[in-house]
From TrEMBL:
GO terms for biological process: DNA integration. Keywords: Endonuclease, Hydrolase, Nuclease, Nucleotidyltransferase, RNA-directed DNA polymerase, Transferase. The keyword Transferase applies. PROSITE patterns: INTEGRASE. One of its GO terms (molecular function) is endonuclease activity. This is Phage transposase. The keyword Protein transport does not apply. It comes from the Bacteria. Residues 1-159 form the Integrase catalytic domain.
Amino acid sequence: LKVAHPEHGRPFIPEVTLIMDTSCRFIVGWSASLAENVLAVADALRYGVERYGIPAIYYSDNGGGEKNWMLDGDITGMLPRLGIKHQTGIPGNPQGRGIIERVHQTILYKIGRQFETYHGTGADKDTVRQVSTAVISLDKAKRKGATQLTPKQQWAVGKLLACFLVFCQ
């Protein structure tokens, strides 16, 4: 799931943290960040706790954003202070988190493909159509020697510039 980086425009994979109630497959919390980190995980947990209450168990992988003192510290950790038992998967066994991994493959890709900045196959057809018509409109304006561009054409200039930067890497 590659999209354009907000700072430099080159493709990157954002870190999306999902908190799921596995008994009913409902996403109770989420957060998006430029990289995996404890603040994104804490933000996703906060979102879920505010809306749906404190869970009894929090199951996660052993990544740096998931397994750290801010979440797990005996005295200062967020999870022990809330009375949440933190269980982690077996290192090197991603199949133990198959439910959430499947959600990443379905929901997040479906959402990501709707953005104009999505880089990859299977982009949303409406988004592809909008980008194509904007680029065609820009091309026609340039051929006619237009000095003023419409907002749609100006947006196409930015889109083409982002694509150009990707190819120049």
